[in-house]
Amino acid sequence: MSSPLLAGKIAVVTGAGQGIGREIAHVLGAHGATVVLADLDADAARAAAAELGGTGVGCDVTDEGQMERLVADTVSEHGRLDLFVNNAGITRDASLKKMTVADFDAVITVHLRGTWLGVREATAVMREQKSGSVVNISSLSGKSGNPGQTNYSAAKAGIVGLTKAAAKEVAHHNVRVNAIQPGLIRTPMTAAMPPAVFAEREAAVPMKRAGEPAEVAGAVVFLASDLSSYITGTVLEVGGGRYM
After folding, report:
1. Nearest-angstrom CA–CA distance, 240 and 231
2. Ketoreductase domain spans which residues (predicted)?
3. Helical (H) or strand (E) element with 117
4. If you count Cβ atoms within 10 Å of the first and of the last residue's Cβ in the chain, which end, N or C, has fewer?
């Protein structure tokens, strides 16, 4: 019997207390990884870790010191870092006319500064190891733009540029940086959408269904594993063919 794809790998997932991040942590663990689940809500992170396995910790991804400690503590405890998943995010949707500067800044800061800090701290360790994979969670909103999400779409598009630039910087150290752009995925957030709106968006998907969090997690497993050893700087769309 072959070994699990991620046997012996040490992984960190931000925003892992719920939703897609939680499922990413779950599936990584199922494939053999030891996972550190980080979330702004420390209780949610610990509760998820208690159920799924691994370690749950509180972390504000916008705080430089906290991100430094997240990586340093992981390496101190486990001796290495093989995968870092920048998943944490927020939404503050509003039209251009009604969106406040505070709501624009909040979304940009969590997504872009948070992801940049994660990439910077993780690759600092990985380049010394001469191995590692970083996966940034973008969104199809960053490809197509969504009305009412000028902040979110801008942030998610920015993650693509960040991913490609970082990938070029660290490729010669055998460190890979890739991004995933999920489309319409069944999460508590999308479950709160008005049913008619959800149905309209689902009908626009060529596969005629919303995706499941596990399908995003499967793409993370691929990019974390040696199956993707010659893939870096790419953007993998997990959207059922939407916007292709």
Report:
1. 21
2. 9-188
3. helix 114-129
4. N
